[in-house]
Amino acid sequence: MQFADRLNNVETSAIRELFKLLGKPGIISFAGGFPDPAMFDVEGIREASNEALTDEPGGALQYGATEGYGPLRDQLSALMATKGARVQAEQLIVTTGSQQALDLLGKTMISPGDKVIVEGPTFLATIQCFRLYGAELISAPIDAEGVKTDELEQLIAQHKPKFVYLIPTFGNPSGAMLSMERRKKVLEMAVRYNTLIVEDDPYGELYFGEPPPPSMLALSESVPGSRELLAHCGSLSKVLSPGLRVGWMIAPAELLAKATMCKQFSDAHTSTFAQATAAQYLKAGRMPAMLLNVRKVYAERAAAMGRALQQTLGDAVGFTQPAGGLFFWARLTGAGGKTQDAGDFAKKAIEQGVAFVPGAPFYAAQPDMSTFRLSFATADVAKIEEGVGRLGKAL
Ligand code: PMP
What we know:
Elements (H helix, E strand, L loop, with lengths): L13 H6 L8 E2 L12 H14 L1 H5 L8 H13 L9 E5 H13 L5 E6 L3 H9 L3 E8 L2 E2 L1 H11 L3 E4 L13 H14 L2 E5 L15 H4 L10 E6 L10 E5 L2 H14 L5 H13 L2 H27 L3 E3 L7 E6 L9 H11 L1 E2 L1 E2 L12 E5 L5 H14 L1
Helix pairs in contact: 2-11, 4-11, 5-6, 5-10, 7-8, 12-14, 13-14
Bound molecules: 4'-deoxy-4'-aminopyridoxal-5'-phosphate.
The site of 4'-deoxy-4'-aminopyridoxal-5'-phosphate has 13 residues, from helix 5.
């Protein structure tokens, strides 16, 4: 077979290879990026899908508009308003997961050789997707407060990227939360350098204590000119159900029109049945109570994981306790002569019956081999304690 040249830039992810090992019986997995299926509001979704079929069966089962199902766009506009962002229904399109929004951004914005700045580390599928379009990825360093804005500014000035891709709130894999001050700085930079910023925000609702700072989309109202340089990707995957494949993108009109055109050739539209179900679910008003429970459960699991890591691994591992999201991002310090290679550690951990993902694949450049990602979302507190105990034996 003679495949397209663009495939030369990507390979199947190391994580997929690792996932093949997860079938081993008895393994405790901190490797996935999935929400806990036990927390899906099955009853609520059943009612919503029934309503969708009763209310407007034609709309729910017929082809639909590429931009999205009208009632869902209205509900998403209302949802964004509750989070402080004024967005008209026409200013967003529904996408098949936010993954498709990222793909559409790649398709509409990236020509081979274009530079794109991403965080180091960042979401693996974004790295792969942008590379597929031929992007040259530049990695901007982060700390617990998200991307380091001084370094980011230097990189923007030096590379003049096509855009900057950030996961400002409880990043995957970093768990980091971009501070209020830095959010504003990034928006000011967008204006100063006339650079598009992409805000990917699937985790913002999964906070454990105080809510995070407003999204950059919400803040853009207070930084003149920045809204026209901002694309925002949202998703119901981590708060309702990833299987529904409902995400959305808010972007300047010109960009949204091009993305919509590309979506037309891609999947025509996101499943109308899924969209109508999501619209009914949001309309029924079940989301706030459901989220309260999800936040509580994940907060307990995150606290348990932090405690267990501290007790079991001590100073051999460094991490910042995440304030939301699904992940711990940790680093092997080498203390006590223990290994600093997270790849070796992952292999030994599998032998002990616990899985996680080494950090290297999450870097577009200069990987830090000592890093790794642990998800606390799908194991209960007892499993988390048992799993971290096994990590202790593997180190
Ligand atoms: N962005 C980030 C940062 C993610 O972690 C994910 C899912 N893991 C996505 C986008 C895609 O999610 P979905 O397509 O299910 O909305």
